[in-house]
Amino acid sequence: MIVVGSGPPLVLIPGIQGRWEWMAPTVRALGVYFRVVTSSLPGDPGGSVDGVGVDGFDAYAHWVERLLDDAGIDRATMVGVSFGGLVAAHLAACRPARVQALVLASTPGPSWRPDAGIRRYMRAPRLMTPFFVAGSPWRLGPEIIAAHGTWRDRIAFAVAQTVRVVRAPMRPGQVQKRLRLMATMDAAGWCQRIEAPTLVITGEPHLDRVVPVVGSREYAGAIPGGAALVTLAHTGHIGCVTRPDAFAEIVRDWVGTTPGRGDFSRSLV
Q1: Which of 36, 50, 51, 43 is nearest to 1 (CA)?
Q2: Residue 57's pLDDT is what?
Q3: CA-CA distance, 172 to 123, in Å (whole number)?
Q4: For burial by CB atoms within 10 Å, which of 23, 51, 126, 163 has the most?
């Protein structure tokens, strides 16, 4: 378990690759304003969980509760990035007493279904991983260019992020399990039970080549109380990493003002 900073408690839940290290800039930026608790997902190094008989998204809920208990926290703001947003949404639906507020960052929408490319990966994750890695410049290159104004900054970010990824490699088998779990999820059903104030942060639609922004924005209509919507400009799928300070400021302002769900999006787009 990683704990950084002080202030209101916040749990940061990684994406489908599972490793918190990929979001190290986000952890540091949020730690300026919050007491950030994070870890790799169960199944990855540092993310083990005691949960005999616990399976599916309930295993992830059990894992988050253990993080909270180990940190001596009753309830916290949950910030889930991509797949981590699904974990956070499930937790908010099933363990509402532990969730002070909910932030879904570039999260697959409640109607998400695997496309042909994802189905190929699910069938042969180790075979497809080299193709996934080779496609990273196409998926993330436009975002890196948009988020950083000079080629020096773009190259520096790309090198630093590559080092983080190499040092904390994802496990294809775990990614496969998470994709299979997503293919059977009932996120629309979870939304009906979410009572926590919810903020949805996305990148710009033309820059997110991983999760359709239109799908992420479905949460505003699927959650009975609605959700605030914010677009983090000049970013795509990994805005929390390409522009971590701006991401952290959005979360800080939203949590600090305890906003009405429909109004916040006008002030931070």
Answers
A1: 36
A2: 92
A3: 11
A4: 23
Q: Which long-range contacts (CB under 8 A, 24 or more apart) does 55-62 make?
A: 56/181, 57/86, 57/87, 57/90, 57/181, 57/185, 58/90, 58/94, 60/87, 60/90, 60/91, 61/87, 61/90, 61/91, 61/94, 61/95
* pTM given for the model: 0.91
Please, which residues bridge with residue 228 across strands? 199
Domain count, the chain: 1
Nearest of 16, 14, 212 to residue 125 by alpha carbon: 16
Which CATH number fits the domain that encloses residue 167?
A: 3.40.50.1820
* Alpha-carbon separation of residue 198 from 60, 78, 102, 209, 233 (angstroms): 19, 10, 5, 24, 20
Taking the C-alpha atoms of residue 192 and residue 169, their distance in angstroms, rounded to an integer, is 36
The tens digit of pLDDT for each residue in 204-256 reads: 999 999 899 999 999 999 999 899 999 999 999 999 999 999 999 999 999 98
Relative to beta strand 9-13, strand 35-38 is parallel
DSSP state of 55: -
Q: Longest Cα pair distance anywhere in the chain, in angstroms?
A: 51
- Give the residue among 207, 208, 220, 256 at the shortest CA–CA distance from 101: 256
Residues in the chain: 269
- CA separation for the pair 177, 218 (Å, rounded): 25
Please give the order of strands across the beta sheet that includes 198-202: 2-4, 35-38, 9-13, 76-81, 99-105, 198-202, 228-231
